[in-house]
Amino acid sequence: MSVRGVKIERSGNLITIDKEPIPELWTIEQLCALLNTSKDWVYRRTMKDAPDPIPHIKLGHVLRFVPGDIYAWLRSKST
């Protein structure tokens, strides 16, 4: 696929833009499905003053999550 001369390819969980791989971003729905939690719970855990916040990227009013960051955060929870 190409958007305005930028070549975009998808392979599994990676998206390649002009031959540079970047991780796919998850939506809040995808994260809720993985964690088996509600959107409300996730939103509370992404607030600035949240204890041990979930790593996220905010694009305007939209939250996105990098899978590798989420897995690292989950590993830090296990003892």
Identify the notable features of this structure and list them briefly:
79 residues; alpha+beta; two-stranded antiparallel sheet; 6 strands
Quick summary of this structure?
By secondary structure, this protein is of the alpha+beta class.
How would you characterize the overall build of this protein?
The strands form two sheets. The chain has a four-stranded antiparallel beta sheet, with no helix packed on it. A two-stranded antiparallel ribbon has the order 5-6. The mean pLDDT is 83. It is globular and about 40 Å long. Helix content is 33%, strand content 28%. A hairpin with a 2-residue loop joins strand 1 and strand 2. The protein has one domain. The longest helix is centred in the last third of the chain and has 11 residues, at 67-77. The termini are far apart. The protein is α+β, with helices and mostly antiparallel strands and 79 residues long. The chain is built from three helices and six strands; from the N terminus they run ββββααββα.
Helix segment tally: 3
Distance between the termini: 43 Å
> DSSP strand (E) fraction?
25-35%
Count of beta strands = 6
The proportion of residues forming helix, as a percent range, comes to 25-40%
Dominant shape:
globular
The tally of domains stands at 1
Placed side by side, the strands forming the largest sheet appear as: 1-2-3-4
Mean pLDDT: 83
Query: Rg from C-alpha positions?
Result: 15 Å
Characterize the quaternary organization of these chains: single chain
N-to-C order of helices and strands: EEEEHHEEH
- Quick one: biggest sheet? 4 strands, antiparallel
Give unreliable regions as ranges. Answer: none
The helix/strand class is alpha+beta
